[in-house]
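User: Could you check the structure of this?
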Amino acid sequence: MSTYTLDTSTSRANPTPAPMRRLTVPKIQAMKGGEPIVMLTAYTARMAQLLDPHCDLLLVGDSLGQVIYGLPSTIPVTLEMMCAHGAAVARGSWHAVVAIDMPFGSYEASPAQAFENASRVLKETGAAAVKLEGGEAMAETVAFLTRRGIPVIGHVGLTPQAVNALGGYRARGRDDAEAEKILRDARAVAEAGCFALVLEGVMEEIAAEATRTVGCPTIGIGASAQCDGQVLVTEDMLGLFERTPRFVKRFDDLATRVSEAAATYAADVRSRAFPTEDQIYRKPA
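Assistant: Sure, the predicted structure tokens are below.
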């Protein structure tokens, strides 16, 4: 096997064959109940390269709508956006399984629509899997895709693409009826064939129960430490935004460091301290 390696001295992807042994969907499935699965979002080749050695799964999330494009939600994200960023992440990685979110409107109409668009995503990006939101209503689609060779990650609980129907981003499962609905959703998509299942923004007890009762690995985000793995939006984890959701632990404060570096650069430019002799070219004497 070979892949593209990223030449960090020029920031260009060069088609240099490199030996690789990427993780596979069956290997992720086999991690159920074992060492926790590490998953982070990535939207660019360079970020994928930095995260890849540490992750089992890289998710090209439709959260790129907010993180990269400054959109108010994930609803406006297009298939073209997902394909472009998905291809970049696949080029920048060699170890992790790369999965790509199916954007709103690209899979809900019918299993046939979902297959047409999911197969396009895999063809154009080189990714291994897609992720789609929804529980019982999407079980038929999950089964349709998996029977046709498209690995699927499910996503239940707080489903951001349904924010208009849900009325916001609050945690789900606060009452018994909603809790039971989340568990039914989790079981439905797991039984339909998804190889992993994201549980987002649900009461801890529900996530723990779902993890115990479904056959595929669960990956929590604002869920439970008992899940089979965890995922965060990388930019949240790195502290690149002022607002930190409750379920996020900030592992760095890159926003402050980037701002300070930019301020130092601006001061050096304005004082003509940059560039120096080390950064300019002169003809030989």
